[in-house]
Design goal:
single chain, about 190 residues, mainly alpha, disordered N terminus
């Protein structure tokens, strides 16, 4: 984890403009407006990769079973998915962050990785220089794929603004690490 990031990087006022050519209603419209939050340039970069990825797939929403595996998915995400687009007060006002939530998000992210992706002894994805051939486990678009991961990242980022503890910097660094890792994988999916 990189510990050079500060809390100020979670307070940027920048958000993305609505993408040209995107539908003016429907699942993408709702998801974009929900996720487009000022959490700093790294988060906005991840969000832009997601927009580019969904554009590549013509903003289509495949069958609900075509998304990411629910195995290891954080339980708060399941509650949100059942209620969307209505907000969940416990996550939408102050975010949602507890140390075990960060662990749940990392565990879910790790479980979605392609077979070629190595995991460390703690089960987290290891940094790499060269992509493997198969990205199919992450090559899922629509409402039940990256939107859930990005919602978790949003809640974690907002929640960190309200999390006052000695380990705050550790979880902020972890947040930056997972955002960078997701952006790297999404970026590859966009260009392939």
């Amino acid at each position: 984890m990189n510990s050079t990031h500060s809390t100020s990087s979670l307070t940027s006022l920048d958000t993305l403009p609505y993408p040209t050519g995107a539908p003016s209603s429907g699942w993408f419209f709702e998801a974009f407006h929900y996720l487009n939050t000022a959490l700093g340039p790294q988060y906005i970069g991840l969000l832009q990769e997601w927009v580019d990825y969904e554009r590549k797939h013509h903003w289509l929403n495949p069958h609900k079973l075509a998304g990411f595996s629910p195995e290891k998915r954080p339980t708060v995400l399941l509650d949100w998915m059942k209620n969307r687009p209505r907000p969940l007060p416990k996550v939408d006002k102050r975010g949602f962050f507890m140390p075990n939530f960060a662990e749940e998000v990392w565990a879910w992210w790790a479980s979605l990785q392609p077979q070629w992706r190595l995991l460390d002894e703690g089960g987290l994805p290891v940094s790499f220089e060269q992509f493997g051939d198969d990205l199919s486990p992450l090559n899922k678009h629509g409402r039940n794929a990256w939107v859930g991961l990005l919602a978790c990242i949003k809640w974690w980022g907002i929640g960190l603004k309200h999390y006052a503890s000695d380990d705050h910097e550790l979880y902020l660094s972890s947040w930056h690490s997972i955002v960078a890792d997701m952006a790297k994988m999404l970026g590859k999916l966009v260009v392939d």
